[in-house]
Amino acid sequence: MFLHVGTPKSGTTFLQSLWWHHRDALAERGLLLPGTAIADHFHASALVSDRREVVDRLTPAQRATWDDLLEEIRGWDGTALISHELFAQASTEQAATALARLARVADEVHVLVTSRDLARQLPSGWQQNVKQGRTETLREFWELARDDADNPFWTFQDVPALLDRWTQGVPAERRHLLVLPPAGGPRDLIWHQACELTDIDPTGLTLDLDRANESLGLAEVELMRRVHSAVPEERRGLDVRRIATNWFTQQVLVPAGTGTPFVLPADVHAWAVERGTAMVEALRQRELDVVGDLADLVPDPTPPVGRTPDDVSEAEVADVAVPALSSMLLAELDHREELASLRADKRRLKRRLAHPPADR
Fold first, then answer.
1. pLDDT tens for residues 184-238?
2. What does the DSSP assignment read for 106-165?
3. Which among 2, 45, 90, 213 could disulfide-bond with 13, CB atoms 3.0 to 4.6 Å apart, if both were Cys?
């Protein structure tokens, strides 16, 4: 049994897309993804970590998801895999309980953590937070993380602490840390490494899939941040965050923007190098199966050349906002036309029910 618990933004969407796309083929090769969709693994992660915002909205059937996945694993004569980065939210006690339950249905429990350097994780984490309703600038987001060891950023990105929570009682050879190569490395390397870990032959399994978790460019993320700032705080709930992360990001902002990349300011990059070095030193003290090179968790000391989020201009934000508003206008028109069609269908059905045709 392999449990992949994070970290977020470390190739998780890429891996999960491939695992679920090839679910049937993987089962034929001996690897089970229990459940029917990634939503089942998301619900399981929420149940394990008692994330009330999600759990309180689950149906009775969904509240049984974690139990159902465990029973499916119990009946499987092979290797099983559960993957969701929100397992990283679990406390030490919650992780221990989950590991104990897994140990009752699997002969071996393996824990997998994927990770990449903080110079990439910090801006990705900031962008994800902006998608989900946070309104801090990148610098403000960094300052909060820098100055507070209990900041939610570290719940997900403190790799030594994450491993400590999720490898209690797990033998060293079953604690797997998969380190992503530096930017520009082989795109498919993490997939082949994951296949090797789970003893799966990837031959014939295509990697050419559409991925929905696209990054926003410089102006798009600033527009998103400003939109959330204009939404009353009491309305920035789960529904708004889901609309923003999915429809607004993928259907509105990505097509409207230019995807202009951005880099960390030089002082923030220097901090990422320093913190990454300390993280690697801590990881070297732990007994782990490291796949890849721990040194790749330390960013290149030379700050990258490029624009930072502080450099975005009002004109660039406006250039994204205009086509974004245009697409939203058309989306509302399509929605109204669909509602009008459904209402017309409803009226026709009501007339037919009120005046059924005579029997022939």
1. 788 899 999 999 999 999 999 999 876 556 789 999 999 999 999 999 989 989 9
2. -S--EEEEEE--HHHHHHHHHHHHHHTT----HHHHHHHHHH-TTSHHHHHH-HHHHHHH
3. 213
